Write the structure tokens for this entry.
Amino acid sequence: MAVTTKDTTSARFFKRLNLIERGMIFALLREGCSLRHIARQLGRQVSTLSREIKRGTTTQRRSDWTTYETYFPETGQSVYERNHSNNGFHSKLHLAEPFLQFAEQKMLRDRWSPDTVVGFCRLQPEWQEQVMVCTKTLYHYIYCCLLNVRNIDLSLKVRRRTKRPRLRKHKRLMGQSIEERPNTILEREKFGHWEIDTVIGRQSGDATLLTITERKTRQEYILQMPNKEASSVSARLTELMTSWGENFAAVFRSITADNGSEFAGLDSWERGTNERHNGLIRRFIPKKTSIAKVLPETILRIQNWCNHLPRKILGYKTPQACFEAELAALF
């Protein structure tokens, strides 16, 4: 029984030009043949020959020092071999071992993101001569299990659902609305404008964290309070004011808060920035954790971590470095 196939798809064979064919191109061009004629002679596409001639054309100089351009088969072959050697994926895994070890340490111990590691190292003189990989490649190595870091180790690897804004009709308004905030504060061009917020504990009567974030540099204070009362907020702000002394007014030009009852003593605006920083704190103190049981040394450790974390929005500089630069310009 004869088997009949109805496959009408023709096989495609791609064969690169060899040096003999390039020599024929050279000879036919010297005879003044057109590109279409040469293509018919070699059984090639016109576009293939056009690319080859462009690749192998070099500038030559005559005896009277005038220049002209001509095609050489050796040049075309050499350029092809050089380009072909760059094809394919060349792993830097064996070349970037010091950088990868540093990246593992920062991601596992200091909880840096891959992008933070890459951006930070690109700014450091000691890494300028070292082999590094880009953020995308670092994520690829993690995905392929080539590092000791896994996706689950990355704090913000999973994209979370964005919360929808919720309108609170009966919210008490004790200060100015965020729409009335001066443009100099909104644009983050001037130093000294802060936002204040609270991070609540396990239950309403638990201790609370007071967070104060400078809008331009993202420098942050994390202050522990026994409760969420307005008197506790005032007490901690008074302590902060005393620590800065006569320089307080220059460093703290304004403090933006929401209209919660704990900020009743402030002439406040609605705040909008330091919720991002409160999210960083929640990496170490999850919700429903009793803040009263968190040691002051741990709070200070978290504060230092936030202020020494390179930020992409700061050009991968740390809030601490930017804050100190602003202070140096003031005093």
The chain has three domains: 19-83, 97-153, 178-330. The CA atoms of residues 65 and 275 lie 71 Å apart. The longest helix spans residues 230-244.
